[in-house]
Structures are given as C-alpha cells and as structure tokens.
Design a protein that fits this description.
Elements: E1 5-8, E2 11-14, H1 20-40, H2 44-65, E3 68-71, E4 75-79, E5 83-88, E6 94-97, E7 101-104, E8 109-112, H3 119-123, H4 127-130, E9 133-134, H5 159-177, E10 188-191, H6 193-210
Antiparallel strand pairs: 1-2, 2-3, 3-4, 4-5, 5-10, 6-7, 6-9, 7-8
Helix pairs in contact: 1-2, 2-6
Amino acid sequence: MGTSVGAEGEERRFTPTSGTFSGWLGIFLAGVAVVSVAVSDHTVRGERFALVAAIFGGLVWCFMLRPRVVIGRSVIELRNPFFSWHVPLARVDKVAVRAVTWVHTDERRYDGVAVGRPVRSLMRARPTRQQTFGLPGLGGSRLPEDPNAALLPKGNLSADMVADFVTEQILLAADRARESTEAVPEPRRSWAWPEIGAIAVLAVALLVSLLF
C-alpha cells in the first residue's frame, strides 16, 4: 500500500493511501458497461443499466479516487468526496493521522479522508504513531526542524509511513507559513460542483427512465 506525490509549483499532493487500485478497477468496469450498452443495447432497460453504471463510476471516483491532501505554499486543502476544506497553514497548530487526517486550528478540527492508517495499525498500541503532533510551543510532539529531514523515500510505502510523512510535511509547512507577514484568511469549504452536478443529472435521468 502506498501513495504518490506530485509537485505543481510549491504544492505537494498526496493521493489516497488505500483503495486506489479498486477505484480504478471500478471506473474501468463502469466504462465497459456504458460502452457495451451504447454499442449493442439500445433499449430502455439497457439505458437504465448504463445510467446505473455511470452513477456507480461517479461515486467510485468521488469516494475512492478524488480525495487528496494538497499542501500549498500558504494553504492546505483536505479534499473529500464532495467538498474540500481549505485551511491556511498559518492557523494549523496540531495534526493527527488516524483513520483520517485531522488538522487542528484554535477554532476547530478539519477532516480529510485521503490519508489514513489501516485498522490493524490503529488497534495496536503504537503511541509514537497515534499521538497528535503539534508545532513547537503549541503542544504535541516535536518534529525535525530541518525540512530536508523528512524526504519521502522512493518505492511502495506503507500507509503508516505515508501518514507519518504527511504529518511532518504539514507541520513543517505550517511552521514556515507562520513566518510570513501576509494576512491570514479564514478557513473555508468549497463544494465539488462538477461531480455533484454530474451525479445529480445522471440520477434524474435514471428516475425519468423508470417512469417509462
């Protein structure tokens, strides 16, 4: 189990730590079903089957492939199935990765489902991995002060290794963001309107087809 990291400018993107293969397999099977109906079955029943397959593919994308943790220069995005949290890094004081990623500010906690630890790790008594990490002086455990000390190794990584690395990277980025003199905005939520709209349209089309 592992994750891939890509850089776009100053961004670091972390894909889901589980379910990626199953997600792409589900998308492939849904695509095969839609194409098969389009080629060989032009009945109302076939159209309904294609719509169900398309809705299934959309949900697979949203829940298994869309989630991300995106660490930017000043904001971290916790991308979830139908919405994203955009949290200014300068406001982040604690991070914990358990079943999901928890990013804490003074006001509240923000959740991201992309990066998490497997159940077997959570059930074991592993305090060095289960505790909440915080910036120096703000509670939690201290992380390496050298940004180069937390380089992601090559190859297939376990979910625990990715979780530790993501925790370190978020807090190091938050530490750097606090040194900036720029104004710090409020955290905000954005909705995944393209995905929501596409699934809604397909669901309405399926409902209409059932009336005939």
